[in-house]
PH domain-containing protein
Amino acid sequence: MIDFNNKGFFKLKQNDEYAERVNDLLIEGEEIISAYKSMRDGVVFTNKRIIAVNVQGLTGSKKDFTSLPYKKIETYSIETSGTFDLDSELTIYFSALGTVRFEFTGKTRLTEISQVITTYVC
């Protein structure tokens, strides 16, 4: 399982590379909303869950995929970017897992992600 307390994992920038990496994990009716990448790791938001990809080892051939279903979310918070602080954050509180925080650089589609999460939380 990915160490979600390691903040370095979650400086994410929009990148469709990870959308391709999780295609085989998608179930019927599941669609990718957006994908993000840090140095080696990535996160993919679908219409049903979040898939976090942790690339391991020197060659990067070993990967850990963590599925975080929206139905397990208790609450969440979004911090948008500002004039001088261009980063934005998504903090999610999962039952039985705890807090997961994603930090984004550049433009993100947090409102679209927020709408999908809200359909499962409410």
In short: The first helix runs from residue 17 to 21.
